[in-house]
């Protein structure tokens, strides 16, 4: 490990929209920019696991209206696997060893999720990208982030946001008076309905006392700063 390090193993949650540059699908330029940020964290010697979303392609609850919800959600899970492969490509392009593990098995393109094997990859310095969410419908990749974070025994779940630098008491893009929290308790976030992660996921973090950091992924170096222990974004804890 290089320099002062606050978190030795982290779970980074990336939304699907980060891969699309806010449009649809995958933009190689956007995935490259993401990979550069992950690389800065990886170079510190920190173990990085990633859960990637699928919203740039499909969100079951939103796009699947009129469909059987479970079917719509399985489509979403498959979308996250496409993103996992794109992210893997971008990371390996800049020389970072990775493994993709999926909760729905597609052995031709990725390893199946095997907890102990994923931990071994992390210990060997490979970035592990989890695709397919939890493998179950009715939840989102936020729940996958909490679950895999716990299973990997990470020190924190890092919730990457786009152009929002933490948790506010109102939407800062609409209300200029909105106030940012430097830190928060799980209870406060749940009671006040604050935008940290979805409620199922947060309940899991609360129960297991897993710290969450909400931060702006698109301020260069932010991920590295958090790992070094700088106060960036909002810390959610007990
Ligand atoms: N999904 C699911 N189970 C999971 C993870 C994801 O059913 O464990 C489906 C769900 O339909 C979700 C979609 O996959 O809307 C894409 O994931 P998510 O919305 O979390 O992506 P993000 O918003 O992070 O890009």
From TrEMBL:
Family: Belongs to the UMP kinase family.
Domain annotation Aspartate/glutamate/uridylate kinase: ranges: 8-216
Function, in words: Catalyzes the reversible phosphorylation of UMP to UDP.
Protein name (database record): Uridylate kinase
Chain positions recorded as ATP binding sites: 13-16, 55, 59, 162, 168, 171
EC number: 2.7.4.22
Enzyme class: transferase
Keyword Zinc recorded: no
Residues binding UMP: 54, 73, 134-141
Keyword Cytoplasm set for record: yes
Keywords for this protein: ATP-binding, Cytoplasm, Kinase, Nucleotide-binding, Pyrimidine biosynthesis, Transferase
Subcellular location: Cytoplasm
């Amino acid at each position: 490990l290089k320099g002062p390090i606050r978190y030795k193993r982290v779970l980074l949650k990336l939304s699907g929209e980060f891969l699309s540059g806010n449009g649809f699908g995958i933009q190689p330029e956007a995935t490259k920019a993401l990979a550069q940020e992950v690389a800065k964290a990886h170079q510190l010697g920190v173990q990085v696991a990633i859960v990637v979303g699928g919203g740039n392609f499909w969100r079951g609850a939103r796009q699947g209206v009129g469909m059987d919800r479970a079917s719509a959600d399985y489509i979403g899970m498959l979308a996250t696997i496409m993103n996992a492969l794109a992210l893997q490509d971008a990371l390996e392009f800049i020389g970072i060893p990775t493994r993709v593990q999926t909760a729905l098995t597609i052995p031709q393109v990725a390893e199946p999720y095997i907890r102990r094997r994923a931990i071994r990859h992390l210990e060997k310095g490979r970035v592990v990208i989890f695709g397919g969410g939890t493998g179950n419908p009715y939840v989102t990749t936020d729940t996958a982030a909490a679950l895999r974070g716990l299973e990997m025994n990470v020190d924190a779940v890092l919730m990457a946001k786009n152009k929002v630098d933490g948790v506010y008491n109102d939407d800062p893009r609409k209300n200029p008076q909105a106030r940012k929290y430097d830190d928060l308790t799980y209870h406060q976030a749940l009671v006040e309905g604050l935008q940290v992660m979805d409620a199922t996921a947060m309940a899991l973090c609360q129960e297991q006392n897993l710290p969450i950091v909400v931060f702006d992924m698109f301020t260069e170096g932010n991920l590295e700063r958090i790992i070094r222990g700088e106060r960036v974004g909002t810390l959610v804890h007990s």
